[in-house]
Design goal:
The protein is α+β, with helices and mostly antiparallel strands and 200 residues long. Helix content is 16%, strand content 30%. The protein is built from 5 helices and 9 strands. A hairpin with a 5-residue loop joins strand 1 and strand 2.
């Protein structure tokens, strides 16, 4: 039996441990959007494909295709997160999760953009956590870099000035938890993608 694209995403996340390492088993996650992540090198995240540190050195663009109508009538806004559950290694994830990127106020492209084929999401606010490229330590094997797209509870959503996500020295980024962050701020997970970089 063929799975539809959204169910195929969910099954992949289970098979590769993104559920439960990053996304809780309960409540069950039902993707509502396909998340496309493209780096300036033209490399894409494709549910666990292997990329290099060079491929992923610069902040990617994202696009998403809502497959189901959002719950709110106003134009929804989204928060985008990138996190590494395999820090410093999958075998010894004592720093799980390492927070690489948090951006709020992400919007789908305006309808007019469809005519110009520019389907990239719009980042309307400065990053809360600026993008920190994958840098897996040598000898630590495969690291999964998970991108999570959350629907925000309201268009005026923002992260408080004193929030941990605004403390961005490397030491401040470890032992973060995307699911707890989402619960705290009323964020609803709608799309996921991930890629792998090997610490060689």
């Amino acid at each position: 039996m063929m799975l539809d694209p959204l169910n195929a995403v969910r099954e992949d996340l289970k098979e590769n441990g993104i559920i439960p390492d990053v996304i809780p088993v309960d409540p069950p996650f039902h993707p509502k959007a396909l998340l496309v992540v493209t780096f300036p090198t033209s490399q894409e995240a494709l549910l666990g494909n292997t990329l290099t540190k060079t491929d992923t050195a610069d902040e990617p663009t994202v696009a998403f295709t809502p497959m189901q109508v959002p719950d709110q009538t106003d134009e929804p806004t989204y928060t985008l997160v990138m996190t590494d559950p395999d820090a410093p290694s999958k075998e010894n994830p004592k720093f799980r999760e390492w927070r690489h990127w948090v951006v709020t106020g992400v919007k789908a492209p305006p309808t007019s953009a469809i005519e110009t084929d520019n389907l990239d999401a719009q980042l309307t606010k400065p990053a809360v956590t600026p993008y920190y490229p994958p840098a897996p330590p040598p000898g630590t094997g495969k690291h999964r870099y998970v991108l999570l797209l959350y629907q925000e509870p309201s268009a005026d959503f923002s992260i408080p000035a004193d929030a941990p996500e605004r403390k961005n020295e490397p030491a401040d980024r470890k032992n973060w938890n995307a699911a707890r962050f989402a619960d705290k701020h009323g964020l609803k997970l709608v799309g996921v993608n991930y890629f792998v970089v090997v610490g060689e």
